[in-house]
Design goal:
Elements lengths: L1 H13 L15 E7 L6 H16 L4 E8 L19 E8 L5 H15 L4 E6 L10 E6 L6 H16 L4 E6 L5 E4 L5 H6 L4 H11 L3 E8 L2 E7 L3 H5 L8 E3 L6 E3 H4 L5 E4 L5 E2 L2 E10 L5 H13 L8 E5 H11 L2 H19 L3 H9 L3 H12 L5 H30 L4 H11 L1 H15 L9 H30 L7
Antiparallel strand pairs: 1-3, 1-4, 2-3, 5-14, 5-15, 6-14, 7-12, 8-9, 10-11, 13-14
Helix pairs in contact: 1-13, 12-17, 13-17, 14-15, 14-17, 15-17, 16-17
Length: 492
Amino acid sequence: MGVMVVLLFVFGVGFGQVKQLFFSDSAMTKFMINYWAPEGTRIQSVSSDLQLAEQKLLADDRIESVTTFIGQGPPRFYLPVDPEFPYSSYGQLIVNVHDFTLIDRMVGELNTWFEENLPDAKASIRKYTVGPGYTWQFEVRFSGPADADPAILRALGEQGIKILGAEPLAGNARLNWRQRIQKITPVYNQERARWSAISRIDIANATKLNHDGRVVGLYKENTDLIPIIARFTESERQNVGGLDLLQVRSPLAMETVPLAQVTDGQPLQWEESMIWRRDRRRAITVQANPVPGETLPSLRNAVLKQFEAIELPPGYSMEWDGEYYDTVKAQASLVPGAIPATAIILFIIVGLFNALRPPLVILLVIPFALIGISAGFLVTGAPFGFMALLGTMSLIGMMIKNSIVLLDQVNIELAKGKNHYQALQDAAISRLQPVFLAAATTVLGVVPLLQDVFWLGLSVAIMFGLTFGYFLTMVTVPVLYAILFKLEPVKS
């Protein structure tokens, strides 16, 4: 038992080296590339950039086809993937490959290509998952009052970006408020404008016609209505310095007046392009993904202390969101079912043996199953995720069943008139083959699941845990039983 306790300690520490994962990646022969140009970029520029990316991808023999969406994501064709909201600066490519095992290698190559050829944008390359998928796995949300100062929230978010920037395990990082954008704001001079019969609406119409254009009609092509937009030429739109000479017309006048005549200048200002809220509170979220080959828990553990050390002004708070939040929520959802199930199991075991020490033997041996589970995940390199957790819970039920069968056989041997020690020894010997066959058939039954990425964690937990559990049932359970009942060999 001393050796078993030492092994439990060693492999308990070793379990900390096992990669943690919520849900594994899918075996789908496709992946997606989320492309984010700087906020304020026109959709035409995003289209030009992604055409360059398309040419790069289609020239690769490993890629079968590429589908591109500009301005927003595709319709929700795969349940775990949430479509992105419409943004003029956003685009997404769905890349189909011939073999999904090549995706990991291609991710690193494409990350380098985007950094070299489109350095001003952020490209997040993401594989499909078999469970809930996240565009950004790592999310930390800073929130304040409903009228919180955007500058304070952005400053808190920038501290988070700085922490992630210095962390080797962090890949692309951004704020969900994106970048601030510049705007030109003509300052309306009410006195001079009244003399010219120019209103604020007249100035708005003139500046819109100059830059974005105004809809002046509709053109029907088959069943589509295409807007006809009137706007100034490209050279005039780009001539921001000549805005003073922009002609503004009043509906009450026949002549136009220059914009400078009815305004006190057109200062350039910065503004937030979007402000997100959470429960009616202004909130900014730091978003990132771990580098390829790493998992979210590894990244979170690396930066946890630094994020917790950020000083928050009064009324402001920090919350962990993203994959971590959903992992904790999913694991907590198992508790309401696990507690009554455990109580029922204990009640049945106590009622079956009509004693306390046999159930205590069964409960004491369960933690030692961690030795086999930890060894299995360390040997295979598989991550421990939600399905592995379910496999572990199933393994506990199997071990309880095997222990009950063994201890029940002890009672049968005692009923034959044997002494306690001999009954324990004979019961263990008689159950060697049945328990072995039960464990072997279960282990061999989950072997085919090793090739499936979704069931990999569950199969590893059951295979290695039950294999070591056979030793626990046939050796550790009798030893614990002998210790608790203070049995000694009977001298012949």
